[in-house]
Each structure stands twice: as C-alpha cells, then as structure tokens.
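Hey, resending since the last one bounced:
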Amino acid sequence: MLELFRGRPQGLRKSDVVARTGLSRTAAAERVDALVAAGYLAQVRPPAEPGRGRPAGHYALNRARGVILVADTGITGWRFALCDAAGTVLAEKLEPLDITHGPQKVLATIDRRFAGLLNRHRTTPADVLGIGMSVPGPVDHATGRAISPPMMPGWHDFDIPGHFARTYAGPIVVEKDANAMAYGEFARVHPQVRDLVLVKLGTGIGTGLLLRGALYRGADGAAGDIGHVPVKHDGSDAPLCRCGNRGCVEAYAGGWALARDLTAAGVPTATVDGVIAAVRDGNRVALDLVRAAGATIGLALSDIVNLVNPRLIVFGGQFAALDEILLATVREVIYRRSLPLATRMLTVTSAGLPDPGVHGLAQLVTERVMAPNEVDRVVAGITAN
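The structure tokens again:
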C-alpha cells in the first residue's frame, strides 16, 4: 500500500486508498493508521477548496522519518549526499577521489564525509534508514561486492555492505555506477520511458540497462558492460585493456586510452579533463582521437540497439560534454549501423541531470526501505509492542 503514496506530496485520503486498492473502509483505515504509527505516513492538510469547507484528512509519506546517505563513486571523483526519507536530495558535494587507493582508504573517507553530513544536519547514525553506494565496476547484486573490477585494485570481493553495517542498521545497496545513473535518469527525468540505455563516458566506459521499467543486471550482475566488448580479437597489434584482454572498446575509446594515445602523439595528457581541454583548444590530434572513439562506441552501441531495441540512449560522464563532436559521431554510427525498425523512434541525448547516480541510488535505497516485506516487518514490530 505504501507505494500508492510515493510521488503524491499532497497525499491521499483513506477513501482514495479504498478506491485504489479495493479494500474495505475498515481494512484501509487500519492499514493507514498502522503506517502512521510506524512513522511511514504523516497526516497533512491541503488547502481547503472554495465552498467545500474543511477537507478530509490526507496522508503522505513522512519525509522526516529519517535520512538516506549515498556515495556515488567514480574512478577519479565522487559525490556524496544526504537525502530525506522519500529520496529527495537535501545536501550534496562533489570531490576528487582515487578509487585505486583501495577499499580501506576510500571507505574511511566516505565514513568521515557521512559523519560530517549527519552532524551538520543534526542527525545521527540511528536516523539513517539506508545506505547507497555505487562503484565503477561489476557488482554481484546478491552480495553487494565488486567482482574483479578492472580499474579498482584491491576491491575484488571486498564486503562493502559489511563495512557500513558496523555503523548503520538499514538496508545497504551497492550498485554499478552506470546502473545507478540509468535509474536516476529514469526516476527523475524520463519516468515515461520503460526501455533506456545509459552510457557513462569517462575514464572508463560503462553501461546501465533499464528494460520494462526495471534495471536489467543479467544473471550475475555483469549485463551491459560494453567497455569490454571486443572491437578486435586478440592480437599483438590490438591495444591491451586494463581488464587484461586486448582489443576492448575501452582500450580504444576510454578516457584513459585517449590520454595514452594523445600523450604518445606528443601532447602530454594524464587525465580525461586534459583530453577535453585539448579538444576544446582545437588540437587536431585530440579531435581525431575523439571522433575515432565516437565511431568505436557507436559501433558497440548499435549491437545493443539491435539486441534490446531501447527507446532512449542517454550519455553521462565527463565526455558527454563533447556533444557536438563525440556524441555526434556516436549518433551517426548508431543510426547507420542499427536496424531501421530499432532506430525509428530512438532518441539519443545527454543526461538531464548533473548527478544522476546520486538520485538513482537514493531511489533504489528508498525502494528497499519501503519494500512490502520490510514495511510489514517494521509494522509488525510496532504492533507487537
């Protein structure tokens, strides 16, 4: 029943619950009262309608029930945020981060930032309803552990949920960064689109798949990793990828690969920002490399378009800023190499949010906190007491 109240800040009356669920008036009232007693709902009073007198009581999600903490981590930077119980971001900050420093050092930094957020908003770990964290690598969804992440040395099979569980009691969601971004764009920008592909273009290349309104992770959480699709089969002339194979999409078109090639061409560059700066300065080598990367990415994405027929492809990450060069090339290749029926209604665009991963994590945690079995457990505990 709690799902009825999500996205309705003006709330619902008990009679609305009856109409939407088919429950009897008594059963609906009892359930609403139980959710109020457990803190999930709070009574609100919308403005009176002219000539209608005092309106009947409305009930809405209790946004003050607690807070949610999220850490959206990339290879070289991260965003951390504090959200209300409905997943609305209340405070957020972007900082540099080196994920290669390993889990102990990175998680210690996250712990300090989370503690600072709670302190500034006069809340405590006991007020935290759940934790969300994204990582730039494949995640076993059942355990919340990164599995053999190519650019995260030391993180393989590390117990991320167990680390946070020492301090926080709520559900802990660990998600691949591109999945979190895909869900954020869906929840906040494109809720009407049921089939969406999010492509993160930064130091690495990641993909999140949303099919029929739900994240598609595959059997083990490895779905959508186009960065390691082979463009060229193993061979001595194919570039070595950080995953250990040769000829991957990322070995040609990832930010680290572009920096490598630009440096080799006589333009010393160590970062994605350096590549972007060279492009914007009009450096011919950088422009050619980025256009070639766009063609490679477009080729890989045309396979996804033909396989799953999404309605929308959204680009995020640092390189999404090069829409007029990189994304223009990607679009051209997708439309040229994909089936006409698959591209007839396809839209290819940049992300509508500067921080889709933060919003995606917040929504995923909220869904766990408000899952029927979790709500029933909490309500049962209140009733028993």
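The chain has a mean pLDDT of 93.

Sorry for the duplicate.
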